[in-house]
Amino acid sequence: MATSRSSGLIPFPRKERTPPLDFTAEQFHR
């Protein structure tokens, strides 16, 4: 799922608690 891709996008160590900003970054990256 997107969580896997977010892991590499989010610079934070907590990939489980992805912030709402990460969601926007994913769409932008697409």
Write up what this structure looks like.
With 30 residues, the chain is mainly α. The chain has one domain. Helix content is 60%, strand content 0%. The chain is built from 2 helices and no strands. The longest helix has 10 residues. The chain is flat and about 15 Å long. The protein starts with a helix and ends with a helix. The model has no long low-confidence stretch (mean pLDDT 60).
Q: How would you summarize this macromolecular structure in one to three sentences?
A:
This protein has helices at 2-9, 20-29.
Beta content comes to under 5%
Overall structural class, as computed from helix and strand content, comes to: mainly alpha
Count of extended strands: 0
Using the alpha-carbon principal axes, give the shape: flat
**What's the helical proportion of residues?**
55-70%
Quote the distance from N terminus to C terminus.
Answer: 14 Å
Largest sheet: none
How do the helices and strands follow one another from N- to C-terminus? HH
Please state the average pLDDT score: 60
